[in-house]
Amino acid sequence: MPAEVAKIAVSAATYWIDKPYDYLIPEEMREQAVPGVRVSVPFSKGNRRCEGIILAVAENSEYEKLKAITEVLDPRPVLTPEQIKLALFMRERFFCTVYDAVKAILPAGLWFNEEGKRRAKDKTVEVARLSVTSEDASVIADNKRRRSPQQAAILDLLCSFEMLPVRDILNHTGASRQSLKSLVNLELVELFQREVYRRPDVYTDEIQPVPELNGEQEKAYQGLSRLAASGRASVALLFGVTGSGKTSVYIHLINDSLKKGKSAILLVPEIALTPQMLHTFSSHFGDEIAVLHSSLSTGERYDEWKRIKSGKARVVIGTRSAIFAPVSDLGIIIIDEEQEETYKSENAPRYNARDIAKYLCSKAGCLLLLGSATPDISSRYSAETGKYSMFTLSERYNDMQLPEVKIVDMKRELRRGNGGDISSFLRDELAANIEKGEQSILFINRRGAHKLISCGDCGYTYKCPRCSVSLTYHSANKRLMCHYCGYSRRVDEACPDCGGTLKYVGTGTQHVEEQLHELFPGVGVLRMDTDTVTPVGSHEKLFDRFRNENIPIMVGTQMVTKGLNFENVTLVGVISADQSLYAGDYRAGERTFSLITQVVGRSGRGAKPGRAVIQTYTPENQTIKQAAMQDYEAFYQSEIQLRRLQNAPPLCDLFSVTASGADEVQVIKTAQYIRKWLSELLRDSAGTVVLGPAPLSVVKVNNRYRYRVNICCTASGSIRKIISHVVTECCKDKRFKGVSVYADNDPTE
């Protein structure tokens, strides 16, 4: 029999040496060593043990001397042929290794720890069932009732159920383990292990019918339904104002998909939104729902993955990584709040869930639906140019009115002697809401108490020793912290340089919370930011407390800006609308408009009318005025003109090549070389512009300096190959030792 050769992606292969490596398949492993199975192989000159995954099997190899696979790690394939193709697509598209892509696709519970054991084991429970007919068991129970009442009770219980967990039987009957064992010895009862799934809390009440649609929703649904039924891959944008009922349209489309025997994936941008979405959708689809996000335990995530792979769950709800759910017969993918940057991964593989969704839909011939009240400018441009279909929901559901918005000039507040972060107008509005028993949400996109602490005499500020940022003061633990590397230190009583008085500058959620307690003593205030929701499931508990306890005020970061539906919230306040407006990024205006529009939309979602207050130092700013009017179309028209002048996406595609290292001079030299080399290789590419090198907005993070070269172009396979070639050569070049180089498609920073 001729030797068989496996083409294997090896975990130890870095990007510049990443390729399928050929290994011999020992004869005794040929049945197990198939594509999609992980194996252990010797790698490099030292033959160190390394994990790999089989991509394909061939009859021969172009190489003469081949090493052999030492062990097959999986009893059956963990990747389907389609997922293997997806991993190869990700390598070419996102400048990562195949194994980086595989690690993104598979759940953490499938991977092995240092001891070679899986991080998550299959959970089983001991179950008992009758070995005889229920009629015979009933007769035997009657005969045993006087001499062995516990055995009789066990038999009576099992006569009513096909099988039961042993623990439940013993608890319900009060019988001893010995009584059950006696029935097993008499061959009246048999015991066995049954697999159970670790699952997050789900809706367990009666299944609800799909909601009724109003005229606008029905029109959008009918159009989207025709696209979904066409059998061709397509992308549609559902643009609906906040509170217009996009979720109801999603439910109808998913219901159609299930009726056809197909599966559906729904992505949400934040973990905080998942419990609310899970409750809504499981009330209509029951156990068909599976949820995937990082707040689940490793075991829960692994078991949800198994339920999806086995076909027991056909509707997947989750954050970015849920796009890799192993669904079969994909019918539709929905990305809610599609403009959010959280859909883009910041670590290798630097993928965007929207790009993965497009790939999956193109292969399955199904619909990708992008939903938002503030669509990504690129998505709106694709709809305008006919690349996407577009459907609009211009009115709130049940004729509810959009909130009435008031812009407050904080410069005028300062002139009036109010140096706090809450204007007199917002204070009065909060007081009115408290008196009426209605709730309010305040949004400020910075956690901690103060942005920085500085000396009023010499200007000294506390800087992070490892990053090029000021330390943020956190009043909860009275420490200064870096939000990039986690460095922390105590605050001095006086300036460490001159002994002068320290001043607290800027504000965050903690300081706003403190001001609210001073303004409204005894009034409940709930804070929602990364510092309060770190424990697993705590975001859900906080939202439940806010709703169930009717806490008057919730203050939070962008966690509170989108997707939340609290009927008693009638007031929203934006504390510092200017904060993200001057970030030095071409997306700054879009981010600001989206955040303000989304958080304003949290108000007045019930029967009571809503209102909003936007506090700003630039009340005449066009973006803030458009957000106050909830006028996305006006914002889009002005923003697309600005992008055209900047030659920024969506008018072009943007790639970046980033160099980082501990030696800033060496990093700059590497980035300059990258710029020069790319300019030479791309000089014949029409319309291509190479910019930089330039430092990132935070140039040093954790003692590593970061400089970037940007390429504005029309994306193509040839340009990606050139960028990949430059990255590979820089990583291999000894002149740039100590500098890491990586490429990114449409960087967010």
Account of the protein in words:
The chain is 33% helix and 23% strand. The chain contains 21 helices and 30 strands. It has a seven-stranded parallel sheet with strand order 11-12-10-13-14-9-15, with helices on both faces. It has a six-stranded parallel sheet with strand order 16-26-25-17-24-23, with helices on both faces. Strands 2-1-4-3-5 form a five-stranded antiparallel sheet, with no helix packed on it. Helix 20 packs antiparallel against helix 21 (717-732).
Mean pLDDT: 92
Share of residues in strands: 15-25%
Shape: globular
Tell me the total number of β-strands: 30
Order of strands, widest sheet:
11-12-10-13-14-9-15
Structural class: alpha/beta
Distance between the termini: 55 Å
Rg is: 30 Å
Number of contiguous helices: 21
Note poorly predicted spans: none
Task: Report helical residue fraction.
Answer: 25-40%
The largest β sheet comes out as: 7 strands, parallel
What's this, in brief?
This protein is of the alpha/beta class. The strands form 7 sheets. The protein has a 7-stranded parallel beta sheet, sandwiched between helices. Strands 16-26-25-17-24-23 form a 6-stranded parallel beta sheet, with helices on both faces. A hairpin with a 4-residue loop joins strand 19 and strand 20.
